Amino acid sequence: MKVLLSSAELFGYAKAGGLADIVYGLAKSLKGLGVDVSIVVPLYGFAKDKILGEVIDLDENLKVVREKLYGLDVFFVKHSLFDRDSIYSENGKDYDDNHLRFGLLSEAVAKIAQSFSFDIVHLNDWHTALAAYYLKQTGFDGRIAFTIHNLAYQGVFEVEPEILKIDRKYFSHEYAEFYGKLNFLKVGIAFSDRVVFVSSAYLDEVLSGEFEFGLSGFIRNHSEKIIAILNGIDYDEFNPQKDRLIYKGFSKDNLRGKYFNKQKLLSELGLKSNMPLFAFIGRFTEQKGVDFLYESLNEILKLDLNFVVLGDSSVNYKEMFESIKSDRFVALYGYNEQVARRLYAASDFIVVPSVFEPCGLVQLIAFRYGSIPVVHSVGGLKQTVHPIDSNTCGVGFVYENQTKEELLDSLEEAIRLYKDKGRLSKIRKFNMGCDFGVIRTAKEYMSLYEELLGR
């Protein structure tokens, strides 16, 4: 079975969020299960001098560079449209030609799939969604799976369909049209053989009309081909016992290293060492609950705790967090994988106050590193984090409503747990022994591929 995974991001190469992690982890796991898997990503300007493999002409205007990356077979799409220093945007503003850039990526995916006789093309998010249309129009005899990692990002542009080589007859509400604009995600849903959401809880929310961003009716019309497969994390990469990015390794059988990581990070950040450490790790966006978190911080910092936030360098959020004056609060800007790992390893609790969350990887990584999640009960968070006194694998503090009062109640409950060292250690070890690995995810995708191919 030959599988072609396509994405705008790939861990270890180009990352803006969890998409990079899951694509890399899935590809690696599929390969370990014996699948002949390749990946397609753009060749971005920030990496063009490092990718030096075989150059292949797809046509007179489109080339790919084929190279091994971390043991995986990767096609890097080479074109001036990708010759940028960022993936999607610059100075907080999306590139004006993203429709052309990711339309081109989709076209390249289709050509690679045809040229190298792939059985399955697995698309991820709107950036590669148009490939489903291009493949179907050119008589591709394989099958197409399309995973939606976040329905909020649909790739909606005010452009004529012909610019993207889409027949105007498909510019209708049954296919590509969305309030007079062209919607990449709708095209992916319409022309793929199977559409995958990344948690069943999130899919239920969408089908009920919650967090559906104008597409619940369209999605219900395609319900016969829609399923859910829960994302997972790469347990080889996210392994606190062997992680070279943290100060000292540790395991559920020996947590001394976790305490060392905490004291070391607190010292570097100038925070007091006799309090529980809470952290937020993620993109600074409204969806991730950052606005809500900021509005709650003054009340949060009245509690006996340290709080660290790590995210991107968004100017607006940087100004917001810099207005918080406390010797128990630190904001770190510009996402850095090493800093993130050290924060996971050091933290007692990871706060995930997302407004909505398709799956979420932060809470899964937190489990792995012995940090207990405090989460809003939505989507994948609701599916993977169970009440603190539950016997179901993966426990934390779960609040139902996005209110300051409920968040503060959960934080206060977490602080009480922190003071009960024996119970705290027991819960850490319980979570660290849970299996939210991407191998389970890969096995479910393998079953899906085999079903699509009639095997």
TrEMBL record:
Keywords: Glycogen biosynthesis, Glycosyltransferase, Transferase. It is an enzyme of class 2 (transferase). GO terms for molecular function: alpha-1,4-glucan glucosyltransferase (ADP-glucose donor) activity; alpha-1,4-glucan glucosyltransferase (UDP-glucose donor) activity. InterPro entries: GS/SS, Starch_synth_cat_dom. It catalyses: [(1->4)-alpha-D-glucosyl](n) + ADP-alpha-D-glucose = [(1->4)-alpha-D-glucosyl](n+1) + ADP + H(+). HAMAP family: Glycogen_synth. This is Glycogen synthase. It comes from Hippea maritima (strain ATCC 700847 / DSM 10411 / MH2). The gene is glgA.
